[in-house]
Specification:
The chain is an alpha+beta fold. The protein has one domain (about 35-145): Sandwich (Immunoglobulin-like). The chain is built from two helices and nine strands. It has helices at about 10-25, 35-45, and strands at about 50-55, 55-60, 65, 70-75, 85-95, 100-105, 115-120, 125-135, 140-145. Strands 1, 3, 5, 6, 8 and 9 form a six-stranded mixed beta sheet that branches. Strand 5 and strand 6 (about 100-105) form a beta hairpin.
Length: about 150
């Protein structure tokens, strides 16, 4: 109830302050992954195995006008035979709330190790792609994407 002069009463002011304080206490604090978190996720998957560059074509925009819809295309060079194929591809981002963006599993029946999707990026960051081959070898590719409007609350 406001006073006759249109001013808030002392009781209303205190109640509003209490609600604002409670809301700020209960609101989740946005924590973003960093390079160390991405490295820890990769280490969980592959330990300290050596990773080579090459074989991965990571097609992402250099500048994303809107972080809500950033296209990503991944293609891994492989004959996709029983003896030589891509088993999995993992994509990580070092500035999002969760370091893992997407993982794909492939078999020789796929014919081609390629996938496309759209991802959300909260801020300018690196996107790291790891490809696991059937012989156990690992390949990596990395791209930096500049985000002008964040997509994950950023």
């Amino acid at each position: 109830m406001t006073s006759m002069s249109g001013q808030m009463t002392r009781r209303e002011t205190l109640a509003l302050a209490a609600i604002a304080g409670l809301a700020s206490f209960l609101a989740p604090k946005m924590v973003f992954a960093d390079e160390a978190m991405v490295a820890a996720e990769i280490k969980k998957l592959y330990g300290d195995k050596k990773m080579d560059s090459g074989k991965i074509k990571l097609d992402v925009p250099e500048i994303a006008e809107n972080g809500l819809v950033v296209p990503i295309n991944v293609e891994v060079e492989s004959p996709m035979t029983d003896a030589d194929h891509v088993k999995a591809v993992h994509v990580f981002a070092d500035g999002n709330p969760m370091p893992g963006v997407v993982s794909y599993k492939f078999t020789p029946a796929c014919g081609k190790a390629a996938a496309s999707t759209r991802m959300r990026l909260a801020q300018t960051q690196n996107v790291i792609c790891i490809a696991e081959m059937s012989n156990g070898s690992l390949y990596t590719a990395k791209a930096n994407i500049k985000v002008t409007i964040g997509g994950c609350g950023g």
